[in-house]
């Protein structure tokens, strides 16, 4: 079955805390849904306050569906021993618009670069397994402007296509805003364009 290019996976809400232990070091893993990069810093600051004895709070995030942006941060651990293993799990689970953070409390025994990579990867994996991953779709809004006498024709298409109305103004001059899947927006717009007296406009998300 061909996959819609406007579908993606993300997490519904912050995950429950998980703890992974490796040679007395404790790794606390978390997953958070995010909509933009500005949300990252406050979350990390809250985790650092929560785990004030943590030596490192390492993380990775990814944003976007069609244009992907990401960042991985080792927070003082050896280069690429924490952030990138965490980001690798974001890629493995195929999720986006997420922040995965792992707070490490040192247990007195050095793990070595290989041990750190394995531990941060496992903590991120367990956190993502704990998270509730959902499928979502990119959507566009189409604005419809028409006279009241065209209402029946417009509503017939909305009902038949099971379209979602996000705004409506029902007067002599009517305005509706409908939410549609991005990949279907051009097709839906054409259906309304065929009705004489209906003006359509795709609103950028």
TrEMBL record:
InterPro entries according to UniProt: Impact (IPR023582), Impact_N (IPR001498), Impact_N_sf (IPR036956), Ribosomal_Su5_D2-typ_SF (IPR020568)
Which Pfam family is one of those matched by this entry? Impact_N
Entry GO terms, CC: cytoplasm
Segments forming domain Impact N-terminal: 23-128
- One BP annotation, GO: regulation of translational initiation
- Please report which protein family the annotation says this sequence is part of: Belongs to the IMPACT family.
What's the protein name?
Uncharacterized protein, YigZ family
Q: Which organism is it from?
A: Kriegella aquimaris
